[in-house]
Design goal:
The chain has 435 residues and is an alpha+beta fold. Among the domains are: 44 residues, no CATH class; 180 residues, Sulfite Oxidase, Chain A, domain 2, CATH 3.90.420. It is 14% helix and 28% strand. The strands form 7 sheets. It has a 5-stranded mixed sheet with strand order 6-5-14-9-10. Strands 7, 8, 11, 12 and 13 form a 5-stranded antiparallel sheet that branches. Strands 20-19-23-24-25 form a 5-stranded antiparallel sheet, with no helix packed on it. The two termini are 46 Å apart. It binds ligand MTE. The site of ligand MTE has 20 residues, from strand 4.
Length: 435
Amino acid sequence: MNNNKSELELAHLHEQLRSESVAGNGLINRRHLLGLGLAGAGSLVAGNVLAADASGLVIPAWSKTPGRELSGYGSPSRFAAGVTRLAPQPNAISPGTGASRTPLHLLQGTLTPNSLHFERHHAGIPDIDPAQHRLVLHGMVRQPLAFSYEDLLAYPQVSRTYFLECSGNSGANSGPTAADNSAGGIHGLLSCAEWTGVRLSTLLEEAGVTPEASWITCTGADAASLGRSVPLNKAMEDVIIALYQNGEPIRPEQGYPMRLFVPGWEGNVSVKWLTQIKVTDGPANFRDETSRYTELLPDGRALQFTYSMGVKSVITSPSGQMTLTRRGLHEVTGLAWSGSGAIRRVEISADGGRTWADAHIEENQQALTLTRFRLPWLWEGGEAILQSRATDTAGNVQPARAAWVAMYSPANRYHYNGIQSWAVSAQGEVKNVYA
Ligand code: MTE
């Protein structure tokens, strides 16, 4: 038995939905949609759903024999094998250097599975034996300390869910022409995990920071010896030495056996494979805080130590390189985040910013994590430009692309947080555009 609605019934449902629009070009009140119940909404979303018919029930082959053996470490279904990081070709000149991206457009919820966490390495992934690794804490302290991995495991730990975003994320959208790419391809230097580890303040208090100290400088054990400076007040506030990622030992790509994790700040500061913390009375001015990870301004000066990530959002579905294959109801969904607090509001536009509607977000959003937003959208085959705009609890509002571009030199690629525009053609093709 086919449960499809007749043309007439569908037209009636569309009419009902149109009357519940919350902004131009098909954005629908979510409460109204839920009120329609399965009979209405279900048939609009999945036009070819069949009603259950017990007489025609086929028992598939996989239900007739026992399945495969248990395994030591799980892996995704072979039918989900396409859900992978967006990884570049190996770097022939500088092996191990580069970035792979989280496929944001293929994921749901807010947590990033460890195998899909984006990677950004400056000299590859060192193969560190935790038994031989040391974290040395020295400089302006009463008692320098050296910790083994085992030592750190004995300290009290905390678990916190935080996003991590590279300051070069979305940099492609600061260029002169809109790159034809997916949400993950443009914005995928962004992930979110539950990080578990030891609060840095616990270790600093044990070492006894001397009164004249005001910074720490941190170095990784990779061949890049990546170093970053962090003001002491942030180090004492919420920085952790992360040992676990979503419950399992932190992955080699993310800094095994330990990394600095600096919540809400540009990813570069979260030094992986952490081996040294020196307490100082000033920043070290490492390469990655002078010639890199500084923002060039239109007058040729540059901003330094711009740590906090700006308020930002991106629609992950529908998004670049997707095609809408049927007319009717779609859910517009995406992610929002801010380095200055929690997400308070996300608005969505389907008409290039002329009208906006509030997207649905879960209550009690935590600070410095990803927020999932959703809103129903009735696409009837017309052209559209989908946009999202986030506001955080500090009152910061995500800027339009043009406003962001006006603030910096055309050469700057860091800290891009302008509004993303996805154009939908009458054929349903979705493309990155500058609107
Ligand atoms: N730490 C070390 N030691 N070496 C690195 O190359 N890359 C930095 C930072 N910490 C890096 C590092 C950059 S630029 C970013 S964005 C984040 O780690 C990326 O973290 P991830 O690879 O776990 O996503």
